[in-house]
Amino acid sequence: MLYTSEKEKMLAGMPYDAWESELLADRMRAKSLCARFNMADPTDLDGRMAILRDLLSFKDTAHMEPNFFCDYGYNIEIGCNFYSNHNLTIVDVCKVTIGDNVLIAPHVMISTGTHPIDPVERQITEYGSPITIGNNVWIGGNASILPGVTIGDNCVIGAGSVVNKDIPANSVAVGNPCRVIRTINAH
C-alpha cells in the first residue's frame, strides 16, 4: 500500500515524521483538551468527562481521574465501565483498544510509540505498534504497557510491571519483564 501522508504512515505503524504540520496540530489539540480536563473542577465529574468525550472514543460509562495525557486521542477506544486512577499516560500513535470493565491504577503508561535504534534514524522518524487490552483487566500502579502488546481477558497485571510481550487471558502477570505467575479460574 502507498501511504500519501505522515498520518497514514503513523496509523499503519510505519516510520513517520511526527513534526509534520497535520500531526503537530492534532497533538496540540489533544494536549489542549487534556489540559482542560486536568484543570477542570474535580467535583464536576460529568463536565470533566464531557471534555474527554471530545477526544477519546468511549463505548459507554467511564470515569478517569486527572491527570490524563495522550498524544492524539482519536486512536484510543475504551469499552464500558472503564476506570483509570490518577496520572494515566497513553502514547497513541497507533490504535489502543481497551475492553469492558477495565481498571487502571495510578501512574500507568500505555505506549504504542517507539523509536529506531539507529541514532541517525531516531532523529528523524518514529513508529508504533497497536496495543489491545481485553475485558475485565486490572492494571496495577506504575505498570508500563509497551508497543504491540495484547493483554487477554480477565488478566491482572501487577504493580510496577513492564509488559513487553503478550499476556494470555486469565493470567496474573508481574515483573520486569512481565511474566505469568498463575492462571485465574474465571467464572
UniProtKB/TrEMBL annotation:
GO terms for molecular function: galactoside O-acetyltransferase activity. Residues 7-60 form the Maltose/galactoside acetyltransferase domain. Signal peptide: none annotated. Its EC number is 2.3.1.-. The keyword Repeat applies. Keywords: Acyltransferase, Repeat, Transferase. InterPro entries: Hexapep (IPR001451), LacA-like (IPR039369), Mac_dom (IPR024688), Trimer_LpxA-like_sf (IPR011004). Belongs to the transferase hexapeptide repeat family. This is Acetyltransferase. It comes from Endozoicomonas elysicola.
